[in-house]
Amino acid sequence: MKDFTLQVDSSQHGVGIALMQNGRPIEFASKILSPTQRRWAQIEKELLAMVIGLERFDQYTYGQHVVVQTDHIPLENIMKKPPNQTPRRLQNLLMRLHRYDCEFQYLQGPNLLIADTLSRAVGTDSSHQIPDLQINSISTIPDPMLTTIRNATNPSDPPAVHH
User: Fold this and answer.
1) Which of 91, 98, 68, 96 is nearest to 3 (CA)?
2) How much is the pTM?
């Protein structure tokens, strides 16, 4: 299985996240920032976008290697600093990242088109948020080898038992 890629971006009013695998999107998410979060520094919003993305897609990201792509280069330096040399809010967000196996990667803004679009499309009024919906679906892809094994180990006519 290939690693997952999480593209994250934040704007003045929201964050946008795209979960990708093999260069193809799997899921998208966006969130309107609260009035308090809107006053945060940009580096804090970008780190918040990472945390929201990893936690929102926990069923994919926990226990897997995840490449987190962001267009905010100062995050690279924050990740290298000891926790006691970062502001308190960043410390709290960084602690939430510790449960994930992440590799952080800088990508120029135009290359994060999906996450950037989602972060700007959230609007500004959090009072009209649509509640999150949880949709689960399972589908299978036919596998000829698996079918052969099943047919060999589970014949359609069980052998007769003779007493």
Assistant:
1) 68
2) 0.69
